[in-house]
Write a structure and sequence with these properties.
Layout (H helix, E strand, L loop, with lengths): L22 E6 L3 E3 L12 E6 L5 E7 L3 E9 L4 E6 L6 E4 L6 E7 L5 E9 L5 E12 L4 H9 L10 E7 L2 E8 L1 E3 L4 E2 L6 E2 L5 H14 L23 H5 L8 H7 L13 H8 L16 H15 L3 H13 L5 E2 L13 E5 L2 E5 L11 E3 L1 H12 L6 H7 L18 E5 L2 E9 L4 E7 L4 E7 L8 H9 L7 H9 L18 E5 L2 E11 L2 E6 L5 E5 L4 E4 L5 E6 L5 E7 L3 E7 L16 E5 L4 E8 L2 E6 L2 E8 L4 E4 L2 E7 L5 E7 L6 E5 L2
Antiparallel strand pairs: 1-2, 1-4, 3-10, 4-9, 5-8, 5-10, 6-7, 6-9, 11-12, 11-23, 13-14, 15-19, 16-19, 17-18, 20-21, 21-22, 22-23, 24-25, 24-31, 25-26, 26-27, 27-28, 28-29, 29-30, 30-31, 32-33, 32-39, 33-34, 34-35, 35-36, 36-37, 37-38, 38-39
Helix pairs in contact: 1-10, 2-6
């Protein structure tokens, strides 16, 4: 249901790697290197073993050429091992693994250029023990689309890994359909092409479509939502049905909000659908004027489902089954009413844990915003209905696939439950999905009546691989990459004309609204500009206008937004859809450390009935909340701190005494906490 942090600034192409010989050395004791392999080459299928203690590092070096694919596996026999692939400078990270703390942990990388690379193994904090490393695949990058798909999906194959599935179609013909890995690790059930899988936010287009059906029958998209849900509060500005399905309502986002309360939906905490209305009832004011700002919002789509129910007289799962799924023949698609309802022949979701994969359930309160299970065939059937509608009309789908225009005239790049953009000159309509562990992507190219779906029950799966595979299968309809670059250059901004000092207005840290713990840091070194995503290498940027920058090696653009006063507090990452971000404080703007005691205290929010405690420990402020991990707060702008995925903006009275703070975490902003002691 949430957009995934791992799809942000992760190259749409896996990092390129090449033919190599791995040489192993390890460190022991006082971090002195110890040769454990006598420089024995690591070849495909051959396993090398080693051991690590806390503080040790094992490095396997290799020479990389171009256009090769490598898949390796570290078996964490008795220690949790962190795996990184470093660039030719021995420092820049080009990839890392996403696996459990015990057992097999795979890494698949393709470095960007020829040179020497390093696979670095380090034990997690407090860990020591044995491991093995094996090179599973070492081969040229496939050029045949089907073989390329098998190659890239090999990371998720086998009987000990959560799985994935891919389907590609064009003009009514299925070009490729295949599944990999396991749907259920506990019972040894393989992932199949007809496995029902939670598609997360990919389901938002279905909710928008249900609203459009009701708009043809008895409602208007311009209706005040209180006409259909009268118990909602009357805000200063009217929120319409259209605002709900375009993410422009100004309502609090319930997943971010409930995280403030300490509820851990990723660990099985329950949130009933009815709570969404209660959350809105307690919201004191809208976060933005409706229609003026795009802010990804699951609350809005949950309310949209309620409107469908109240105007149809049917519960949402029944409405969708009788009005959409059954008429289209989507016999294996359903809306799961709650995480405790049984879904026959479904895939379980898994995430890496400290001692193996953990089985994690669905998010609660998801119907309308997520909570839908479907299959590859059914999703192909659904998208083919766009081109030749059997349910709905061509006018409905065209409106859904048209970018919404904000009140200031700016396009959002999002229609009704669908992202709208281009890929190498070809119009693309898509939506990704992420529940707790399930991942999904559905991309449609209306100009060639073609599409691709990826699904997975592995929390580390990168759904954006669907776009790379689309380039392979639909290459004949897309412009070559160099032609796209030439088109972009013609008559456009000359980077040489950009004054580097102008970038200083943009420099700073920005948290993505949809994933506030994921921060992009923008810096300048002389006339070179950099973007550094959380946990990823620093990437150079090139100006494409006075406020937009293209990121090197990644198909992504950064757009900075100035407010009416000329200051910059917002940016948007344009990569596989639009991802807004908000400037957050940086340590360089720190308050006087001696004044930190002013902020110590216990704070309570009437809106969400939650306590936070701020304490001073070892010269730093620490956030404490009963169900959240403690987090050190980094000082930023005056009276503002960040930590634990939150931003704290403290409030003082006229005597300068701290009396409360406003808490934000991206999609949910300025929830007030008053000081109680």
């Amino acid at each position: 249901m949430r957009e995934q942090p791992e799809t942000i600034l992760t190259p749409s192409r896996f990092l390129r790697l090449a033919a190599l010989t791995l040489l192993a050395t390890t460190a022991s004791g006082a971090l002195l290197p110890r040769d454990v392999s006598a420089q024995t080459p690591l070849s495909v299928g051959r396993t090398l073993s080693g051991s690590l203690s806390e503080g040790d590092t094992a490095r396997y070096t290799f020479e990389a050429g171009e256009d090769y694919f490598v898949l390796g596996e570290v078996d964490q026999v008795s220690a949790d091992i962190d795996v990184r692939v470093l660039g030719s400078d021995g420092e820049t990270p080009w990839g890392n693994s996403s696996g459990p703390g015990r057992g097999a942990e795979r890494f698949a990388v393709r470095p960007p250029e020829a040179g020497a690379y390093t696979v670095e193994l380090t034990p997690a904090e407090g860990e020591s023990g044995d491991y093995t490393i094996t090179l599973l695949r070492l081969e040229p990058l496939e050029t045949d689309p089907e073989k390329l798909t098998d190659q890239l999906m090999s990371r998720y194959g086998g009987e000990d890994s959560p799985g994935a599935a891919v389907q590609v179609w064009r003009d009514g013909e299925t070009l490729f359909s295949r599944a990999y890995g396991m749907a259920n690790l506990g019972y040894g059930i393989p992932f199949a092409t007809n496995t029902r899988t939670n598609i997360g936010s990919t389901s938002k287009q279905f909710t928008a479509f249900a609203i459009m059906l009701q708009a043809e029958r008895l409602i208007s998209l311009d209706d005040d939502i209180r006409k259909h849900i009268p118990e909602l509060p009357e805000f200063e500005h009217t929120v319409t049905v259209r605002h709900l399905i375009t993410h422009t309502s100004g309502l609090r986002e319930f997943l971010n909000l409930t995280r403030m309360t300490g509820r851990r939906l990723d660990r099985g905490d329950w949130i009933d659908r009815s709570e969404i209305i209660d959350i809105v009832q307690r919201q004191p004011a809208l976060q933005n004027e409706p229609g003026a700002e795009w802010n990804y919002n699951n609350t809005a789509f949950g309310l949209a489902a309620v409107i469908v129910e109240r105007t149809s007289g049917q519960d949402f799962p029944t409405f969708m089954r009788e009005n959409v799924f059954e008429p289209l023949g989507m016999t294996r698609t359903l809306v799961r009413p709650s995480p405790i309802h049984i879904v026959p022949e479904m895939s379980e979701g898994y995430t890496p844990g400290p001692d193996g994969f953990l089985q994690i359930g669905d998010l609660g309160g998801a119907a309308g915003a997520g909570g839908m299970y479907s299959t590859l065939d059914d999703l192909q059937t659904w998208v083919e209905n766009y081109a030749n509608p059997r349910i709905g009309s061509a006018e409905i789908f065209e409106e859904m696939m048209t970018s919404y225009v904000l009140s200031d005239g700016e396009e959002t790049g999002y229609g009704y439950g669908l992202s709208v953009d281009e890929q190498r000159g070809l119009r693309r309509v898509s939506h990704g999905g992420a529940d707790v562990a399930h991942r999904s992507m559905l991309a449609y190219y209306p100009e060639i009546n073609a599409g691709i779906t990826t699904q997975s029950n592995h929390a580390g799966f990168n759904s954006a691989v669907a776009y790379e595979l689309a380039e392979a299968f639909f290459a004949d309809a897309m412009k070559p990459e160099d032609a796209v670059a030439e088109d972009a250059d013609e008559g456009t901004f000359d980077p040489a004309d950009y004054d580097p000092e102008d970038f200083d207005d943009f420099a700073g840290r920005y948290a993505l609204d949809e994933t506030p713990a994921f921060i992009l840091t923008f810096t300048r070194e002389d006339d070179t500009f950099y973007a550094e995503p959380t946990g990823q290498p620093r990437l150079a940027m090139v100006p494409t206008s006075d406020s937009t920058f293209a990121i090197s090696r990644v198909e992504a653009t950064i757009i900075f937004h100035r407010g009416e006063d000329g200051t910059v507090s917002r940016m948007t990452l344009d990569q596989n859809g639009l991802h807004p971000g908000t400037r957050v404080p940086g340590a360089e703007e720190a308050d006087d450390p001696e004044a930190l005691a002013d902020f110590e205290g216990r704070y309570f929010s009437e809106e969400i009935e939650t306590f936070f405690e701020i304490v001073l420990a070892d010269g730093e402020l620490v956030m404490k909340q009963r169900r959240l991990d403690d987090a050190t707060l980094e000082p930023g702008q005056p009276d503002t701190f960040s930590g634990g995925g939150f931003t704290f903006r403290f409030e003082r009275d006229r005597n300068g005494q701290v009396i409360g703070f406003y808490l934000s975490n991206g999609r949910t902003r300025d929830v007030r906490f008053g000081r109680v002691r």
